[in-house]
């Protein structure tokens, strides 16, 4: 469930644009005004604002934001303002670049988005970067990581609820066999995770637990230092329990010495309109403290205010 | 006897010459039909002293009569449904039809392939990639799964230096063919399944320059891999080859289907270019070849598709 709060009476797009323009004028920037508008508009509204702003002032809103804002606050506002598909394309592209490379982010985008959303991200990728997502992922990753990531980012999973129990049983068996043999990069293992529908995978993992006693997660814990295994475990989580995955990312980001703002920003902006409420509940359950409070403790200034707004804290 | 010959001819080839069958068989007396049964080769003498239809031939006839109907149904279909169904059928038929999967994945535009993937969800409640991955077992599997999953960029931009280094990677894979079949080589699969078509054209141009010969002429290249490359960079040659193979004498059931498939799927796209390529390669206009090999309504239908708008 979304945490986004939009006022009951939304000002007209023209008014929003005027206010935003005002926020940039003069010596400083009125960050509070920016937050009060952008943090309380949904994707469709933000898109319209961006279009109208560009038509009216001849400049992309994002460009103005880039000029006026800095650091973590700028990044959270920029990512938030982007259309979800563009955002995913941007994050994915960043994740293929040398200094910001992240197999985890690529997997996260590929596995927690719906088939349609992943597809739209791929389309946005074409438009913005003049290449395909898969050619960049293929080129910039290698070995077992590529074996896993390429099929994940190119998947177009069936999204129905239908489940074939016989198939679930036989594929649970395959998974168990490969894991027991420690062949974690096995073709079949990857095939199952990368091509089956999420409902089917869920059924398969249930069968796995029924027949073999352990959660697949436990059986994949063989070597804590193995990055590939880490990614594999996270893949499974993203596919069937994304809220647990995101809670963990947030927990690690917040508990980390100095806070991982990158992860915090990414999770909040990409999930605010999707399931941040569920993630919040999960966070509270797991950490005995509300996510809002943890964010307040760990961040400050306009960055903190923007996050809180997206978390649904306070009024629209 | 000339009539029996004409009748046999009307029932052999692609489709059925309905008019001839009607005029000869329809006008026949019992003794004419008996002569046909004795001479035709479609029947065999049963132990109980009667000429019995050869079951196999009845099946063949059924296919020939259905050729027109299948072409019509395929033609009227939405291209997305058409491609989804063709892929499903290829999967059911087994490894000999893997080239059809390569054909569809590689010759369609990114959005057309995407449409096929969507239609496949609706029709079969699975994704194409999951079915391809679970039903194909040979060396081609990796490449096929990757090809059906592609959503290639379609702009003209190419990076020449990358294309050159990727050509080198291909050369190295071919040199190494004894240790690993190039079709299973990760770099080969990555390059062929993720790069844009313009980029690939450049890659293979560099291949020829550096290696001294065309990739398709390398001996150790798996047929499916060759087909994939052809489909990606010179689809018209690929299609004219499929057409020629379909119309050859003695072509098997699946190969023959290539005639309908190519005509129907390319009539709105590049059939003229394919036609030109065919004439250059096989020294006879495509329409003439179809006129000679196909029969009846099926033939007329195909020729009409080709002639539209000219």
From TrEMBL, chain A:
<dbReference type="InterPro" id="IPR001464">
    <property type="entry name" value="Annexin"/>
</dbReference>
<feature type="binding site">
    <location>
        <position position="68"/>
    </location>
    <ligand>
        <name>Ca(2+) 1</name>
    </ligand>
</feature>
<feature type="binding site">
    <location>
        <position position="296"/>
    </location>
    <ligand>
        <name>Ca(2+) 1</name>
    </ligand>
</feature>
<protein>
    <recommendedName>
        <fullName>Annexin</fullName>
    </recommendedName>
</protein>
<feature type="binding site">
    <location>
        <position position="299"/>
    </location>
    <ligand>
        <name>Ca(2+) 1</name>
    </ligand>
</feature>
<dbReference type="GO" id="GO:0005737">
    <property type="term" value="C:cytoplasm"/>
</dbReference>
<dbReference type="GO" id="GO:0005544">
    <property type="term" value="F:calcium-dependent phospholipid binding"/>
</dbReference>
<dbReference type="InterPro" id="IPR018252">
    <property type="entry name" value="Annexin_repeat_CS"/>
</dbReference>
<dbReference type="GO" id="GO:0005509">
    <property type="term" value="F:calcium ion binding"/>
</dbReference>
<keyword id="KW-0041">Annexin</keyword>
<comment type="similarity">
    <text>Belongs to the annexin family.</text>
</comment>
<dbReference type="GO" id="GO:0009408">
    <property type="term" value="P:response to heat"/>
</dbReference>
<feature type="binding site">
    <location>
        <position position="258"/>
    </location>
    <ligand>
        <name>Ca(2+) 1</name>
    </ligand>
</feature>
<keyword id="KW-0479">Metal-binding</keyword>
<feature type="binding site">
    <location>
        <position position="298"/>
    </location>
    <ligand>
        <name>Ca(2+) 3</name>
    </ligand>
</feature>
<keyword id="KW-0106">Calcium</keyword>
<dbReference type="InterPro" id="IPR018502">
    <property type="entry name" value="Annexin_repeat"/>
</dbReference>
<dbReference type="GO" id="GO:0005886">
    <property type="term" value="C:plasma membrane"/>
</dbReference>
<keyword id="KW-0677">Repeat</keyword>
<dbReference type="GO" id="GO:0009409">
    <property type="term" value="P:response to cold"/>
</dbReference>
<dbReference type="GO" id="GO:0001786">
    <property type="term" value="F:phosphatidylserine binding"/>
</dbReference>
<feature type="binding site">
    <location>
        <position position="304"/>
    </location>
    <ligand>
        <name>Ca(2+) 1</name>
    </ligand>
</feature>
<feature type="binding site">
    <location>
        <position position="256"/>
    </location>
    <ligand>
        <name>Ca(2+) 1</name>
    </ligand>
</feature>
<feature type="binding site">
    <location>
        <position position="26"/>
    </location>
    <ligand>
        <name>Ca(2+) 1</name>
    </ligand>
</feature>
<feature type="binding site">
    <location>
        <position position="254"/>
    </location>
    <ligand>
        <name>Ca(2+) 1</name>
    </ligand>
</feature>
<dbReference type="GO" id="GO:0009651">
    <property type="term" value="P:response to salt stress"/>
</dbReference>
<feature type="binding site">
    <location>
        <position position="28"/>
    </location>
    <ligand>
        <name>Ca(2+) 1</name>
    </ligand>
</feature>
<keyword id="KW-0111">Calcium/phospholipid-binding</keyword>
<dbReference type="Pfam" id="PF00191">
    <property type="entry name" value="Annexin"/>
</dbReference>
<dbReference type="InterPro" id="IPR037104">
    <property type="entry name" value="Annexin_sf"/>
</dbReference>
<feature type="binding site">
    <location>
        <position position="24"/>
    </location>
    <ligand>
        <name>Ca(2+) 1</name>
    </ligand>
</feature>
<dbReference type="InterPro" id="IPR009118">
    <property type="entry name" value="AnnexinD_plant"/>
</dbReference>
<dbReference type="GO" id="GO:0009414">
    <property type="term" value="P:response to water deprivation"/>
</dbReference>
